[in-house]
Design goal:
mainly alpha, 27 helices, 74% helix, globular, cell inner membrane, transmembrane transporter activity, membrane, cell membrane
């Protein structure tokens, strides 16, 4: 039973980050003593893991009852860390998993297994490569943490505000204005962040109030930020750390995964832009007047190098075949050097960099805790074989229907991913449901991207929509309403995974053909327009309900995987799009340039539509 891969110092680094995460507790009095006891228990249990690991590498080792109880203490501390960092939901999942391992022999149906004692469970969950200190934790410590620090350093050296200013300047001429800027900024920052809620808060504190000021309702402003921030988790090059975990799980090269994820992510963000644009037209919101748009000055162009050059350096190192960790390391160094050279404010206040590193440490501690806790689930799943049995049941229920299997997997992903960060959500779902979809002949990279999409979108799906709850205090709106609007804005995100399965050319790496790629790009572009205008109820003019329903029907028909159906509905979609374009270019049509921002009052029914 081999312990986690990597050197002892590398594994110890993960424990140190756990300790740092635990030390964030601010209470005083007797609670400090509780923390001291928990810290001591964590250090003892980690030290025992390392010692046993060394023994297992050199020969056999027979576990003692002391080893088992030390492992139990480590699990208890880990669960408490998880509660502090993420609340109750993830703790409940871990506890139920452990109870399942202990008492599964008494359960019916596919949940029944041969039964395991506490000693067997601890050997797998705490001391083996399949548990807490398993492969995912090793990937996080050796690859992912440096990119989280990179994002924090960029913010500290002053690149974040400048990038946000560029986003506002570039999107000011569009009706959506700040909403489009929020989408662009959240996409950039979200790819480097391992936390959807952290991204919502980080960019939303500036973008949400400005979106509301332009005339959008608070709930819609929160929905835009939640949908955009969530999408960063499947936007290359970093994909919120999921790309590295996926590469480790599947054995597929990191750059191949990024390539496969690129076009679907771009279409997702394009759909957000179109959705905001049609909503702005519906509400009569005009573009930001030229006089009020941010002006990019020489200092902004210079400061943009703090982001552009490190990112270019990182991609160059990756393309040369070197490790992502090395690329991230040099990107961090380049960002720090450029920050001191180009930003006089950082030279006057170098403590900003220390504060950025502290933020990066806190974010790193959170993701370490999340992945370590999911190690409990991974260990039990591998020990009991539940994932494979569940895959067999799914295949039996769905029969030969790939679509039904995908729908079941979508629902399972949305449910299992609710209330959890992206990385643990992905790991849980792919363990339970991944084998089923691969049995249907879906390429491995596409099957995993399918899971990632719905694991991420669970963060905006009510009732447990963590991105919506993060945006609610800023928008001062009901989180459930924000989640509903976020799902409406991100509708195409729920469609793209199915499109990817039936049109693998969109991934650029699986069953690729140029004709297949061009055909799906044409259809998906039209579908985005039809769905966005159908939801908004407005294209060049207001759309009656029958016409809105017709647009959805035509859009889904264009994606139906039968060639003659695709061709017929695509012709209909092209005709609708052409009519919209001609109507929008009438002499009396609104001009998107200039003018004051005026929101046309809507009736209460239209406001809530």
């Amino acid at each position: 039973m081999k312990p986690c891969c990597g050197s002892a110092p590398t594994r110890f680094a993960g424990v140190i980050v756990l300790v740092l995460g635990m030390s964030q507790r601010r209470e005083r009095g007797w609670l400090v003593w509780v923390d001291m006891v928990l810290l001591a228990a964590l250090l003892i249990s980690a030290q025992r893991y390392f010692a046993i690991g060394e023994m297992l590498e050199t020969g056999l080792y027979f576990f003692t009852s002391t080893d088992i109880w030390i492992g139990v203490a480590g699990i208890i501390v880990l669960l408490e860390l998880t509660r502090r960092a993420f609340g109750i939901p993830l703790v409940v999942v871990c506890v139920l998993t452990l109870l399942y391992a202990l008492m599964g022999q008494s359960l019916p149906w596919i949940f029944q297994h041969g039964g395991y004692g506490l000693d067997q469970i601890m050997q797998v969950v705490w001391y083996s490569f399949d548990g807490v200190f398993g492969g995912p934790l090793s990937v996080v410590v050796t690859l992912i943490l440096v990119f989280i620090v990179f994002g924090s350093v960029l913010e500290a050296v002053g690149a974040g505000p400048v990038l946000l200013k560029f986003a506002f300047a570039l999107t000011g001429r569009f009706r959506g204005g700040p909403a489009h800027a929020a989408i662009a900024a959240s996409g950039v920052f979200g790819t480097m962040s391992g936390s959807v809620s952290g991204n919502v808060v980080g960019t939303g504190v500036m973008t949400i109030p400005m979106i509301v000021k332009r005339g959008f309702p608070p709930r819609y402003a929160g929905g835009v930020e939640a949908a955009a921030s969530s999408g960063g988790q499947f936007m290359p090059p970093i994909m919120g750390a999921v790309a590295f975990i996926m590469s480790d799980v599947t054995g597929i090269p990191y750059l191949t995964i990024c390539t496969a994820a690129l076009l679907p992510a771009l279409f997702y963000y394009a759909s957000l832009f179109v959705s905001v644009h049609t909503e702005a037209i519906r509400r009569g919101i005009k573009p930001i007047p030229r006089a009020d748009r941010p002006v990019i000055v020489r200092h902004d162009w210079i400061m943009s190098l703090c982001f552009i050059l490190p990112l270019a350096l990182m991609m160059t190192i990756l393309l040369s075949g070197r490790s992502p960790a090395l690329a991230g390391f040099w990107a961090v160094i380049a960002a720090v050097v450029l920050g001191f050279v180009l930003n006089p404010e950082l030279r006057r206040e170098p403590q900003r960099l220390i504060a950025g590193l502290v933020d990066g440490g806190k974010a790193s501690a959170s993701i370490i805790i999340a992945v370590a806790s999911i190690g409990i689930v991974i260990g039990v799943m591998n020990m009991t074989g539940l994932g494979l049995r569940f895959a067999g049941v799914m295949q039996a229920v769905a029969g030969e229907s790939l679509f039904l299997s995908l729908v079941m997997m979508m629902l399972g992903s949305l449910v299992l991913g609710m209330g959890m960060p992206t990385v643990p959500a992905y790991l849980i779902v792919i363990l339970v449901m991944g084998p089923a979809i691969e049995m249907m002949g879906v390429p491995t990279v596409i099957a995993h991207l399918f899971v990632v999409y719905f694991g991420v979108l669970s963060s905006i799906t009510p009732p447990v929509a963590i991105a919506a709850f993060a945006a609610a205090p800023i928008a001062r709106a009901n989180p459930i309403h924000i989640g509903i609007d976020a799902c409406r804005i991100a509708l195409i995100g729920f469609v793209i995974p199915f499109v990817l399965v039936y049109n693998p050319s969109l991934s650029l790496v699986a069953d690729f053909t140029v004709s297949g790629l061009l055909w799906i790009i044409l259809r998906l572009s039209i579908v985005i327009w039809l769905f966005s205008t159908g939801f908004a109820g407005y294209a060049a003019d207001r759309l009656p309900m029958p016409m809105r329903l017709l647009r959805f029907a035509v859009g889904f028909g264009m994606l139906f995987p039968v060639l003659w159906v695709e061709v017929a509905f695509t012709l209909a979609g092209l005709a609708m799009t052409a009519m919209d374009w001609r109507a929008s270019h009438r002499p009396d049509a609104d001009d998107d340039e200039g003018g004051e921002a005026v929101a046309t009052p809507l009736s209460p029914d239209a406001e809530n539509a």
